[in-house]
Specification:
The complex is a heterodimer of chains A (521) and B (434). Chain A has 521 residues and is mainly α. Chain A is built from 22 helices and four strands. Among the domains of chain A are: 132 residues, no CATH class; 137 residues, no CATH class; 89 residues, Alpha-Beta Plaits. In chain A, a hairpin with a 2-residue loop joins strand 1 and strand 2. The longest helix of chain A has 29 residues. Chain A starts with 12 loop residues before the first helix and ends with a helix. Chain B has three domains: 173 residues, FAD/NAD(P)-binding domain (3-Layer(bba) Sandwich); 120 residues, FAD/NAD(P)-binding domain; 109 residues, 2-Layer Sandwich (Enolase-like, domain 1). Chain B has eleven helices and 25 strands. In chain B, strand 13 and strand 14 form a beta hairpin. In chain B, helix 1 runs parallel beside helix 7. The longest helix of chain B has 15 residues. Classes of the chains: A mainly alpha (521), B alpha/beta (434). Chains A and B meet through helix 7, helix 19, helix 21, strand 4 and helix 22 of A and helix 7, strand 21 and helix 8 of B.
Amino acid sequence: MSLAKPDALDINNKQKVALAIGVIGLFILALALFNTNFPNKGLFLTLSLGSIIGGIIMYSREAYLTKLEGIKNDGVWFKSISSRGVWGWIVGVILTTFYIVLYFFPKYLGLGTDGAENTGLISLFDPLSQLLSGRNASQWFVYGTLYTVAILAFGYKFILKYRHNRYQQLRTVSVMFFQLGFAFLIPEFMYVMNNDLPYYDLKSIWPLNYYIFDEWSVKGFLSNGNIGLALLIFGILSIFVITPILTYKYGKRWYCSWVCGCGGLAETAGDSFRQLSSKKMSAWKLERWLIHTVLVFSIVMTVAMVYTYLGYDKNDFWLTRGVFISLVIGFLTLVFAAVMFFKRQELGKDAKYGAIGFFIVIALLLIMHFTGTTDHLFYIKAGALRSAYGIYIGSIFSGVIGTGFYPILGNRSWCRFGCPMAAILGFQQRLFSKFRITTNGGQCISCGNCSNSCEMGIDVRHYAQKGENIVRSSCVGCGICSAVCPRGVLKLENDSMKGRINPTEVLLGNDVDLMDLVNQK
Amino acid sequence: MEHIVIIGNGISGVTLARHIRKLSDKRITIVSAEADYFFSRTALMYVYMGHMKFEHTQPYENWFWKKNRIELKKGYVKQVETNTKTLHFAEGDTLQYDKLIIATGSKPNKFGWPGQDLNGVMGMYHKQDLENLEVHAPNNEVCKRAVIVGGGLIGIELAEMLNSRSIPVTFLVREDSFWNGVLPKGESEMINRHIKNHHIDLRLSTNLKAINSDDNGNVKSVIIEETGEELECNVVGLTAGVTPNIDFLKDSDIEIGRGVKVNRFLETNIPDVYAIGDCAEQHEAIGNRRPIEAVWYTGRMMGETLAQTICGNKMEYKPGHWFNSAKFLDIEYQTYGWVFGERGRPEYEQHFHWKHEDDTKCITVAYHKDTNEFLGINTFGIRMRHDVFDQWLTEKRDVDYVMNHLSEANFDPEFYSRFETKILKAYTNQLQPV
């Protein structure tokens, strides 16, 4: 339909001032990037970040506090930035370029190599880095700071936008807290206390944190006495004990939309782009292939990495290559067997794909074990696998595409298509969790607000209009579908496993014998 | 193979088609002049407000129809010839059917106001109304003021739509309080205040007298019946209810009243011709329901029921407990069972009303004054569980039970403030003899 774009949705003058302030802050960063040598870097850095944060705060207050509480989605599909218009593409290109430079050409950001002083943008952040940990900034410090600023400032905006919704406010405060504390400050302070410890964001769990079991990382932990060992054990417990328990009780949302940094950025700075995710069936199919391929890749890669630095002889260390491979295969087989035994019915035809995936992993591991040499695995240099994962998945997929393409693919394309952690959590959420989105009887009017605002591209309406609960592995439990529903149809909740998945078309309001018939397959 | 032809691709017709396909291999054709594919009418407002694009209102992707062998025919049926089982289209072609289902929905009421067909006067029902509104009210430069006539669900939605584009709205409501033919007083008055809080110029007990035109046949102003006041405006929204959209049947043999007359099996007077949804009129009303139910859910239920009949399992339309919902600007409304406003309230129906001090949440519980049987509940700003109330109504619980177990029915998002204790306290106090 060729509807003219209404221009009555212009921002008001105060918002224009707010935008200008924010742009000045960004402009200072741009000047630094082009090697303007500011006299007092601390002052200009404060000015820059202060303007960015101040601009966003002022803009948000004007946007939301001047109106009554409620859903604030007016014009999201008219505004250029949030509907893949010119501004959307411009921001997408800028973000993407930034990520490419950050990951692959940090010297253009001013990173001093071989002991040289930082210049440009990175040097602007030296004073803050000195303040926190007594060392000069790196490109990762710059990135971490901007990332944290984005989550805090846009988190504030999000809290105002949903000021009638306690669930939204609490989880936003939670991601703001975890980003500022766990991802940003604590690692800096840990460095101050013990500068041999590898950087460790405690909330970043393997396999999202794909380098935690790398040789340098494990050595770093092990060479640092009890605290290092404790951290390493915490890392292992995180994925094998803490994660399954919390996911069972609350669904994967405890992580994806309450704790995770990627999720945190997506929910705050990325909120304006949530409606851009594709809801097509074809996108869902692609998602399932992609994310599980990444999961297989990350498991094989991690096992291979650990494998390379283990020995053959159990006299050196009890965990030899043979023992390790057996443990991994044993664990995977146990999980596979348990799922097939208890959940075969629920899986339906997906069981076949699950089985194929399982046997591919086992086959790969066995091939690796029997063809591997000291420094070659799969006939390539052992490190090549790890660096391929780091470049293609860790950098390009999660960063360049995942965040750079926010204004094009939506704010959760990494979480949806690529994150191996999300795949593991989702697998458990689908099969073994108390979490579901309950559909409220027959109240759905198929309006599509839920599907439209689902950042994970779930066609929520497809389930709601049939009176079915939504139990999908990809659901991150952001709760926006429930918030925007005009008829009060959706509720995120943790309840008993029984009756959680109700694939029958229970449309209340019909008399009972009709429903019996409709439900007969 | 039997050919089932459904006129109308709204929720009733599409639900019917889907269920016939589930149950059989019959040939199915859906005819529509309005849109190529099924869309959710209730969501049109969100397209104008920019929450969604039009394609997002379509619950099924375009490949769905072919995959399920549901043929879609775009065309306007101008005549139904039941003795030869033929449809004649305005475009000149014809279509043969074995069974015909009329599911053509409604059209906005017009009460013969002078000027009601001018440019810029519109309902808000069809996709074409949305397109028309986009032409006449794209922004507050082109449309300096809009006047809405008729205080019902569509009227308040249209007000919200125009409000989203900062177009000043005057809202003429015939009744002395918004939608009080349906809502009890306390609720209706709360919504009056909410409308005004959104800076909508709500005029109660006010009727439209005439719509004036400029030299080009466009709306220039409206005249108010009571005061004779002339209000300048560029758009007039007529939202004073809807009527079955069945003019094309006037010359056919199918019996019509206000709607297409049907029995409890949704059959018309002509064999193999049925009617469902908004356009169907029951010979006798079912329970407290109206003979014509222009509601999304009833259309869906009729579609499900008729699919059974058409596929060989003859079945009566027996809707269960009444339920409905709506959203008045920022305030959600749900109802389960029967709660009547002042008008048409049975003498045995007694109410308990509670309102939150923030003036955006309230509930009204209806019960039988002699037996204390729980009859129904209206809730505003608090979500409730459909299945719980459905069960309580079936079990004929008494009002005390419902009030004491209200928390089981709460459906608000996690961490929301809960009001059951306050509500129960108010309820108990009310029962204390003073």
